[in-house]
Write a structure and sequence with these properties.
Bound molecules: ligand LTUXU72L, zinc ion
Number of helices: 16
Largest sheet: 8 strands, mixed
Structural class: alpha/beta
Binding site for Zn(2+): 72, 74, 221, 309
CATH architecture of the largest domain: Alpha-Beta Barrel
Organism: Marinimicrobium koreense
Catalytic activity: S-methyl-5'-thioadenosine + H2O + H(+) = S-methyl-5'-thioinosine + NH4(+); S-adenosyl-L-homocysteine + H2O + H(+) = S-inosyl-L-homocysteine + NH4(+)
Number of domains: 2
Strand order of the largest sheet: 3-2-1-4-13-14-15-16
CATH superfamily of the largest domain: Metal-dependent hydrolases
Cofactor: Zn(2+)
Radius of gyration: 21 Å
Protein name: 5-methylthioadenosine/S-adenosylhomocysteine deaminase
Distance between the termini: 71 Å
Number of strands: 16
Length: 442
């Protein structure tokens, strides 16, 4: 018999749901990790025989899943959580959020808000987030420092903002940022055109060309409300997605966020272009924007990922609870109880998210050769009992607060519910400080 191989980490768990192979749960197995990469998923006795681990973690009542991918958000908006509620999108944005952003946006605000959001996401099992916000260099640096994986999309609007004077300035700063993070293992920079209704044709066409040249993702709010679609027909004589298609903007690199208003032509455009859909059920419900036909998209072979949107329209960043909402809503929208079953909901929050971000060769499932981005959920409390199907428990009961451990590329970000790369007390203090400033002027 050959000598045991030395590895950095072995995690032994009661259950492992690797997402690939599909619909499977392994019991009493171990994940073997070395150099940040998954080396094996084997029965625990076999792990004992074959490997010598520098660190071994035993999780006797826990389920291991791939780290969650939050495919759409505005992390720094955590500081505007609860600032304006119970409003439809247009009133919420134009009457409250944009004026607040005009007044308060700064490097410091984005840095503090992003760190607060990352802490919340890590604590509820997210390892990778997709962000669109001002001062994206702050978001990118914060993610790198906290060792979270992120796609950071620099904003592009026709209008000026605290971050730039207009499209020219946004492109100059954004492309420089893309260059700065070209070699990063964790952070990828993409284009963040805000929405079709805040951008004219010229910058959209430029984004289409540059994204193809750089092989960089495009992240855009699209068909979020009925008003967006009807105003586009009035102004441009076409639906927003048709306009994007004609400007060359639709491809597998394009991440279409929301898509609550769709007809057969829209579905064809997404399917035939290979574009990605990001579903944000809680934000869509809260702003009364509409319903994304997720099961219909999946049946058409369209990739659908899951996002929380910002904390100002959700109002939390818990992707596990988003999974539950997505699963329940899909059943109501499709009129079928078997729509978005528990395993499909988990896939939407992991592998589909990875695919939407072009990262599915590296993350999204617990497969040998993939990065060790792992989340552990403890299923030992009363509302978790009894456990017949751990994935059903994960999706249909409230598990966000049961996340105990999180790793990204083999590095621990959460151990026994304690953050390892961010300071929770300090972040709470900073959030309170910001709220005092902002409330004073509200
Ligand atoms: C390009 S920076 C992000 C920009 O988007 C605003 N925003 C936040 N949530 C939404 C949403 O659901 N639809 C449209 N725009 C949204 C955010 O406040 C920033 O200004
Ligand atoms: Zn959004």
């Amino acid at each position: 018999m050959s000598a045991p191989q030395t590895v950095s980490l072995i995690i032994k768990a009661r259950w492992i749901a690797p997402v690939v192979p599909e619909n499977r749960v392994f019991e009493h197995c171990a994940l073997v990790v070395d150099k940040g990469v998954i080396q094996a998923l084997v029965p625990q006795e076999e792990a004992d025989k074959r490997y010598d681990a520098q660190q071994e973690i035993f999780l006797g009542n826990h389920l291991l899943i791939p780290g969650l991918v939050n495919a759409h958000g505005h992390a720094a908006m955590s500081l505007l959580r609860g600032y304006a509620d119970d409003l439809p999108l247009k009133q919420w944005l134009e009457g409250h959020i944009w004026p607040a952003e005009d007044q308060w946006l700064s490097e410091d605000m984005v840095r503090d808000g992003t760190e607060l959001a990352m802490a919340e996401m890590i604590r509820s099992g997210t390892t990778c987030f997709n962000d669109m916000y001002f001062f994206p260099e702050q978001v990118a640096q914060a993610a790198q420092q906290a060792h979270m994986r992120a796609q950071v999309n620099f904003p592009v609007f026709d209008a000026p903002s605290a971050w730039g004077q207009g499209p020219e300035d946004y492109f100059r700063k954004g492309l420089a940022l893309h260059d700065d993070f070209r070699a990063s293992e964790l952070v990828r920079i993409g284009f963040g055109p805000h929405a079709p209704y805040t951008l004219s044709d010229e910058p959209l066409t430029r984004i289409a060309t540059l994204a193809q040249e750089l092989d960089a993702p495009i992240h855009i709010h699209l068909h979020e409300t009925a008003q967006e679609v009807s105003e586009s027909i009035e102004q441009h004589g076409k639906r927003p997605i048709q306009r994007l298609a004609e400007l060359g903007l639709l491809s597998p690199l394009t991440q279409c966020v929301h898509m609550t208003q769709v007809d057969e032509g829209d579905i064809e455009l997404i399917r035939d272009s290979g574009a990605q859909v990001v579903h944000c059920p809680e934000s869509n419900l809260k702003l009364a924007s509409g319903f994304c036909p997720t099961q219909r998209f999946l049946d058409e072979g369209i990739n659908v990922a899951l996002g929380t949107d910002g904390a100002a329209s959700n109002n939390d960043l818990d992707l596990l609870s988003e999974m539950k909402t997505a699963a329940l809503l899909a059943k109501a929208v499709a009129g079928r109880a078997d729509a978005l079953d528990a395993h499909s909901a988990l896939r939407m929050a992991t592998l589909n998210g990875a695919r939407a971000l072009g990262l599915d060769e590296h993350i999204g499932s617990l497969e040998v050769g993939k990065s060790a981005d792992i989340t552990a959920i403890e299923l030992s409390d009363l509302p978790s009992q009894p456990v017949y199907h751990p994935v059903s428990q994960l999706v249909y009961t409230n598990c966000g607060h049961k996340v105990s451990h999180v790793w990204v590329a083999g590095k621990a970000l959460l151990l026994s519910r304690q953050l390892q790369t961010l300071n929770e007390r300090e972040l709470i203090g900073k959030a309170r400080w910001w709220a005092k400033q902002i409330k004073g002027q509200h």
